[in-house]
Amino acid sequence: MSDTIAAIATAPAPGAIGILRLSGDGAIAAASAVFRPASGLPLAEQQDRRLIYGALLGPDGSVIDQALATISRAPHSYTGEDTAEVQCHGSPMVLSLGLESLFRQGARQALPGEFTKRAFLHGRLDLTQAEAVADLVDAETPAAVRQAAGQLSGVLGRRVRAVYDGLVDVLAHFHAVLDYPDEEIDPFRSETIGGALDRAREALEGLLATYDRGRYICGGVPCVLAGRPNAGKSSLLNALVGYERAIVTDVPGTTRDTVEERCRLGGVVLRLIDTAGLRETEDTVERLGVERSRCALAAAELALLVLDGSAPLTVEDEQAMEQAAAAPRVICLVNKSDLPLAVDLERLKRRFGRLCVVSAATGEGLDRLAGQVAELFPTGGDQGAGELLTNARQAAAARRALESVERAQTALAAGVTADAVLTDVEQGLSALGELTGASIREDVTARIFERFCVGK
Ligand code: GDP
Ligand code: ZN
After folding, report:
1. Class of 5-110 per CATH?
2. What is the mean pLDDT of residues 424-441?
């Protein structure tokens, strides 16, 4: 039994089409009460998964739109429950009246993500697929779309499940031998478990190695704009983002807060953080900003070190250069290329490896910067799309699984008894189960029955 949820599924602005969505035991009855098919046959008696033309009724029973409706009976629906959808015109007023009608038929407002949560609870999606739904909606680059779409189709889930299945086999075999001594089952050998553990470890290491790429494709690259006051950080941020966001001033040290802006560059999203100048200061407000910018640098994947190319380097530039070096990757941006050059490019290139001459004022050189970013953060095109770990939750679970497998290997090598080794295997399984949302107890039991035919 599940209560009936309803929501406006489309964006809350006027558009060509708007969709009302329903799921739950009463979904089809509720939709049927507020939608009158032109054919005269009630919606609830129509065929599954067909578009039916008719009139949408408001809370007072009056016609508020000409629309299309579709019903999908459990379990052949997104949520696995009875569902209905009404596609009407994308008028926020029509949609809210339509929703009100559905509430009067006993539906309640769906919570954020509740349709997808129900899909997970009914086994229509695993957890990685459920996460991919949100990632796909939020995707800002073609690479992010490919990754989320692949993950949604189950690519990551299958990759995890292959490891999971290998370990479930081991556990199931062990329990079968132990719990059903009367059955004729091959005895349990430590070579079998050793081989399974080796394979699991290798697969998990490979999986964890995808996290770097997955993280920047899906979440963007944390990127700090470093440089002394007046080097042109805020101007550059504005040039990159394409609109005015940070306050640009002529007074040094006025960018006191860090601001984060997102821009697409070289196929990835840069999460740009403009910082207060990285210089020592007596001013407490500014000191807070400086402190924050140090934190930002420590957490960044990339520092864009901005230098004013039209003036000789100063002590403050030197400090900024030293601090930018704390980031794992640095691109030195020699800004203000529209003015005569006053710095030694060769020296800077030797020091930082990556250097780009740019002008925040004219936009010159930003395409070359995009090329450098693409080189540092390759998205890999179609290759591996969908099978990367993309968020901290997934990576933490995979890491715990790997640690458990390594512990099991150590225990096995030390000659510890099989059941002690299997405790580690079980922990590894539970970590992998968290990743996809699988439940080990059920899976081991099911495997015992299907693979070893115990009890027939
Ligand atoms: P920040 O303190 O590093 O954030 O520097 P700002 O972005 O506030 O810029 C400081 C000054 O340099 C401002 O007067 C900008 O107009 C100027 N500026 C920034 N970039 C350029 C550039 O590419 N060319 C020229 N000519 N001036 C620039
Ligand atoms: Zn600034």
Report:
1. alpha beta
2. 88
CATH of 217-376, one of 3.90.550.10, 3.90.950.10, 3.40.50.300, 2.40.10.170: 3.40.50.300
Is 23 annotated as ligand-binding?
A: no
Q: What is the pLDDT of residue 445?
A: 67
Domain positions in the chain: 5-110, 132-210+388-449, 217-376
Closest among 36, 30, 52 to 99, alpha carbons compared: 30
Atom number in ligand 1 closest to CA 228: 3
Residue 232 is assigned to a ligand binding site:
yes
Atom of ligand 1 nearest to the CA of 362: 23
DSSP code of residue 44: G
Residue 293 has pLDDT above 70, yes or no: no
Of the chain, the percentage scoring pLDDT greater than 90 comes to 64
* 132-210+388-449 CATH choice from 3.10.50.40, 1.10.3470.10, 3.60.20.10, 1.20.120.430: 1.20.120.430
Task: Show Cβ contacts of residue 220 under 8 Å, excluding neighbours closer than 6 positions.
Answer: 140, 262, 268, 269, 270, 271
In this structure, are strands 35-37 and 5-8 parallel, antiparallel, or unpaired? Answer: unpaired
Average pLDDT value for residue range 394-421: 92
The ipTM value here is: 0.98
